[in-house]
Amino acid sequence: MKLIIANWKLNPSTLKEAQELASSVPKKSKNKVVLCPPTIFLSQIKYPFLGAQDCFWEEKGPYTGQTSVLQLRSLGVKYCLIGHSENRALGETDKQINAKIRVLIRHKIEPVLCVGFGTKKNDSLSVIKKILLSQIKKAMGGIGKRRLVIAYEPVWAISRGLGTGRPADPAHAAEIAGFIRSKIANAAVLYGGSLDAKNARGFAARKIIAGGLVGGVSLRPAEFLKIVEAFNN
Ligand code: PGA
């Protein structure tokens, strides 16, 4: 079974639209589909597997505007994206990422560690591997040999909006997934970055890729469904 995660980012703008979007994604699939709506809508969306897009590293206290894992857990949230490049670009550090992962694990919410920020399309494989390994090691500090879901999202491949970016080559994503698995044997490695209905099959065909993290296209249910179906095989 593959894991397909829909990252709605800061969309849509109203609760009504969010509920309509969620209800248009089929609830039954051969794969596990996780919806990550904006935090504010989490309590109002009905879907078997819900994820948050981020969380705070402290459980409670004087932290204005933050969301704690205890709050997420009380809503039945099962997954949480951590280290997304859009958050790293806003200044999120490896230390914060590690602290978030630790508190998520403590409260039995599955972290989905995103790596790939800081890589460039023309970087050599060895440079990319070095960047990724450093991000993974820092993120996993102190958590032992636990299974971890890691999303390889080369930052240059992420679309700006509705899936109009250029994805990585599936062979490249598979090579990186193999590399990550060679370092962390029990990692499940997803690919993310401009996945769409057309290109998903190429990634799905690589057995080493455990699923996808979908941004822009997850806002278009019919196309998103085709990505989910592509990973059925
Ligand atoms: P994208 O986003 O599918 O729109 O490229 C993926 C992500 O940022 O998680």
Short description:
The chain has 233 residues and is of the alpha/beta class. 33% of the residues lie in helices and 16% in strands.
Please identify the top-level CATH class: Alpha Beta
Q: Which hetero compounds are present in the coordinates? A: 2-phosphoglycolic acid
Order of strands, widest sheet: 2-1-8-7-6-5-4-3
Count of individual helical segments: 8
Tell me the β content: 15-25%
The helicity comes to: 25-40%
Regions with pLDDT < 50 over 5+ consecutive residues?
none
CATH architecture: Alpha-Beta Barrel
Tally the structural domains.
Answer: 1
> What is the terminal-to-terminal distance?
9 Å
CATH superfamily: Aldolase class I
Number of strands: 8
Q: Which sheet architecture does the biggest sheet show? A: 8 strands, parallel
Topology:
Layout: E1 3-7, H1 15-23, E2 32-36, E3 51-52, H2 69-74, E4 79-82, H3 85-88, H4 94-106, E5 110-115, H5 125-140, E6 148-152, H6 170-183, E7 187-192, H7 200-204, E8 211-214, H8 221-230
Parallel strand pairs: 1-2, 1-8, 3-4, 4-5, 5-6, 6-7, 7-8
Helix pairs in contact: 4-5
The structure holds 2-phosphoglycolic acid.
What does this structure look like?
This protein is α/β, with parallel strands linked by helices and 233 residues long. It has a single domain (3-232), classed as TIM Barrel (Alpha-Beta Barrel), CATH 3.20.20. It is 33% helix and 16% strand. It has helices at 15-23, 69-74, 85-88, 94-106, 125-140, 170-183, 200-204, 221-230, and strands at residues 3-7, 32-36, 51-52, 79-82, 110-115, 148-152, 187-192, 211-214. 43% of the residues are buried. The mean pLDDT is 95. 2-phosphoglycolic acid is lined by residues 7, 153, 158-159, 163, 165, 192-195, 213-217. Residues 7, 153, 158-159, 163, 165, 192-195, 213-217 line the site of 2-phosphoglycolic acid (PGA).
